[in-house]
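ERR on first pass: missing label on line 2. Operator R.T. fixed the label and resubmitted. Corrected input:
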Amino acid sequence: MSNATLSDRRPSTLRAASLPKWFSWAVAAASVALGLGVSAALGLESSIQWALIAGVLFVAGTFGIAARVEGKRQAKDRVATSVVWVAFLLAVIPLASLVWETVSRGVKVLDTYFLTHSMGVVADTEPGGGIYHAILGTLEQVGLATLISVPIGVLTAIYLVEYGRGKLAKAVTFFVDVMTGVPSIVAGLFILSTWILILDMGPSGFAGAMALTILMLPVVVRSTEEMLKLVPNELREASLALGVPKWRTILKVVLPTAIGGITTGVMLAVARIAGETAPVLLLVWGSNFINSNPFSDPQASLPMYIYLQYANSGGSGAAYDRAWAAALTLIAFIMILNLAARGIARWKAPKTGR
Amino acid sequence: MAKRIDVSGLNAYYGSFRAIEDISMTVEPRTVTAFIGPSGCGKSTFLRTLNRMHEVTPGGRVEGKVMLDDEDLYGAGVDPVSVRREVGMVFQRPNPFPTMSIYDNVAAGLKLVGGKKKSEMDDVVEKSLKGANLWNEVKDRLGKPGSGLSGGQQQRLCIARAIAVEPNVLLMDEPCSALDPISTLAIEDLIGELKERFTIVIVTHNMQQAARVSDRTAFFNLAAVGQPGKLIEIDDTERIFSNPSVQATEDYISGRFG
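pass 2 clean. output:
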């Protein structure tokens, strides 16, 4: 009998002391409370300091207690997990508050009237008016930029991956990398100096679209290049070995295999340029009227509309409301584009199902 | 249909590195010829020179002659694309096109080259899948993606895809090395049937497989790592496995090698 109890009591080598499941939650709650308490006691006024204190307390507390009870290795594991959580929350807080702020301020004037009317008969300081002209301008400028840069970008990437050898390919890669770093205002100034000052063309949506193309092109080339590199070489060889010419292999085997990733890349590039203000300000000038022709006369665009409503309104509340509503529309527009891209990527992705 | 391959004085290079040296041999029509030898001895490289796939590799180039009946594959003005239509290839790992259905995979060669009617295409697909012993397993799901099949089925799908374009010669680069014994057996049976219509060249690391499926066997070897691979001898499979004329062949086959 004594033998049995002895062997029962002998500590197992496979099981160690472990903290209950609610441990992390308890530490989190305690550190939040402590963080709030410390900042209240010290009279810290910032609304974010207590969260940082709580974050540090959470990581340190987790490590201290877990090291006591569970041992060093588990403590390190818990610290790694809690650092990830804290970093995640720190990243999400500004994002979530930005969305919240935009939505709560933007919905005030956002309705069908707002989406279908321009600012043509409304002074900047008065309530009323809408963003139809800006939506139209953004769609046309971004659409034109996409129409120019997608074919050029995809063909460049095909050259780099499938054909490019030697110096020319290296030079192209180098310049694409350089282009990625061009600030948007520089792209705008370049088009301004060539198209408007030297060639003496007036401001137009097309001029803006050219500047946006400069910004979009390297993103499209880079992402397409990466996607094409992911296509297994075996597929190219399989197609070539069937006696299919190289260009048809690229068109019918390589591109369809990569199309999902390419679409996602293009959509990300579109999302990047849709929010550009600087080149549009220089080249499209902005307008309060509906101008559906992107090839002549100033146009509006959403980011510029937001800026102008803020800058030209002299502190009018109505203009601020319109700016927020336009910002919300722009975010929604980009989100819809992203969702569409995901849908296309999923629809076109190589199928693995049985 | 099946054509004779006559190779003489063939060297293949990767950049400045000579991978195979001075190979001459004849591959008879309607036979199975197996290439055996240690890894890195140039079997696969040699196989890929037979349908001009070697030059797809950056830096790959070839010297020498490969006659397909009476045409030199490396002659002036020969289009590698038409060579590959005459000499098909099956790879080591099954590689069906992931974006295409089973039907489209088999029809890929014809579709991508163009110029066939839908009804003709249906016939070719059925005939090729039957030829690859896959028809009964997939006839109810021709529209499903080819990547949903098992490894062995995928490899037979690749064989169906290769024979759909009606080549004269079929090259197989270790077609069973990624497959289980049952699927291997299915492919070996298939090779036996296909040799009625095609000239078949197969690279294998499995000596029993070479003994089972081939009529003639070629043994390749290399002097040392970094040296080019050479053809040691080619003879009837029975002779190679019972009474080879070169000592190195016997050593390799009986397992006394390296």
